[in-house]
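Justification of computing resources. Each target in the renewal requires a structure prediction run like the one illustrated here; the chain below, 296 residues long, is used simply to show the kind of job we budget for.
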Amino acid sequence: MPIVRKAAAKLNLLLDLSGVIFPDGYHEIGTVMQSVGIYDTVTLSPDDSVSVSCTLDGPLSARPGSAADIPCDKTNTAYKAALRFAEYTGKNVGVRIGIVKRIPSGAGLAGGSADAAAVISGLDEMYHTGLSQRQLCEIGARVGADVPFCLVGGTMLAQNVGDLLTPLPPLSGYRVLIVKPDAHVSTKEAYAAFDSCEHIRHPSIPWALNAYLRGDLKTFFAQCANVFEQTVEVAGRAEIKAAMRSFGSELALMTGSGSAIFGLFRSEDDLNACAARLPDYPVFSGELWQSGLLEG
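Resulting structure tokens:
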């Protein structure tokens, strides 16, 4: 029987970089991450070798050229995840990986990392390896910095390079609207732009966390910021954020290194009205999840 996983996108409710770069090239980060129910479906089937195929669904499928953004070769993170799993466990892995893509690429939503997490979790089931969450995350960290979070999901404080995860109380009562401008942001170039910037305004993570843990979401959201918004230019970002705020979004922010912008809404009617006001962009909406992966 094929093994199916729904792999959730992630949001950065707050994102800061310290400027410290580790020997492996990763930056030290501090971020509050949240799983959201906009997901890719990843199907694993036994095979003689490792292969990846991708199809598009949802708003992505209507955009010309979107399929070209998704590599279905050895550079795909799902493929890399299968290799890292084989190295870690010593298994002779043969699997056909089918991915239905709904999470846009180049958007800061960790779509590739989510797919990798689904592969690692699915192979653990397929090969009956019974790995602990810590072991799964060790494999994930060898694929990419966001993969451990995508394996665990929920609401998390992520530190170090993103692999040091601390659970936070669930954020509930919100739906999310995600708007994807046409810009495709290279993570590598976004970090290089940050490194070249001399003056960065840093959010106070301790202050924000104190407010969050006290249940003071108004103060928490007021402290939330993404430092990449100071160094990465995304056409339409100001317009999208202004529209979200005008329809009652309590937090409107770019996620990751961009280019996607999200808004958190209490009212689904307000969310839908905002989406209708932004007809020129692909829009996605979903609930906040408390897991990074669901069985399909």
